[in-house]
Amino acid sequence: MDSNIRIPKHIGIIMDGNGRWAKKRFLPRNAGHKKGAEVFQDITRYCNELGLESVTFYAFSTENWKRPEEEVNGIMSLLKEYLIKAFDYEKENNRVLFLGDKSAFSGELLDLMNDIETKTADRDGMTLNIALNYGGRDEIVNATKEIAKNVRSGKIRIEDINEKMLSDNMYTKGQPDPDFILRPSGEKRLSNFLLWQSAYAEFIYMDVLWPDFTRKDLDEAILEFNRRNRRFGGV
Ligand code: IPE
Ligand code: IPE
Ligand code: MG
Fold this sequence. Notes:
By secondary structure, the protein is an alpha/beta fold. The protein has helices spanning 18-24, 29-50, 69-86, 107-120, 136-152, 163-168, 215-227; strands at residues 10-14, 54-61, 95-99, 127-134, 180-183, 202-205. It has a six-stranded parallel β-sheet with strand order 3-4-2-1-5-6, sandwiched between helices. The longest helix is centred in the first third of the chain and has 22 residues, at 29-50. The structure holds 3-methylbut-3-enyl trihydrogen diphosphate (2 copies) and magnesium ion (MG).
């Protein structure tokens, strides 16, 4: 990419459109999720090459449990299979974090998630956040509970509560806020993604479905981001 282009520090990506991609091909929805997982892998590598500090992929929301059991089971087994076999976190220098309420997971999947987080904790490359059973509102509720506990135990006073403290109690603790949120599939909403962190993020939507998303599409999104004029409330 052109050297005059500003590369963002953190991009949030809502991986959407898997179902529609499959439907267009008369395939089961889970075929779309499978192809989507491959694209996730390639775009992660590309984010590494671009030199991002963080990238966050929205993989499963707190609301996605509402889907038919067959689809949810399919996504969970795909995830497990993927974390065991295909996910090349061994080769890349990424710190991997799973953002979300892990209490919904158990057994092998939870062990895998914890294992990957522990093994990659000291890496100094890009932070790869995978949002699983993630909800922005749920995250804010959790942060509130943590802070309330600290007030109750006398560790902090109510007057000490500030924005930094809230940020430090989010799953993304220590990471820069996203510069932009990217949503393929043509939808123009956040769907409960990174609510706290996106206060000043640019929102970029694209008409391509996630399983068709390419490195070139990410280039295009970064160019669009470069054309935006962020003011953060100033003039
Ligand atoms: C995103 O694709 C993947 C998940 C939410 C797990 P969708 O499954 O939402 O695809 P569409 O929106 O139905 O096309
Ligand atoms: C958001 O997509 C969640 C993920 C991509 C994981 P959805 O497809 O669930 O969002 P809505 O239902 O269209 O808002
Ligand atoms: Mg969708």
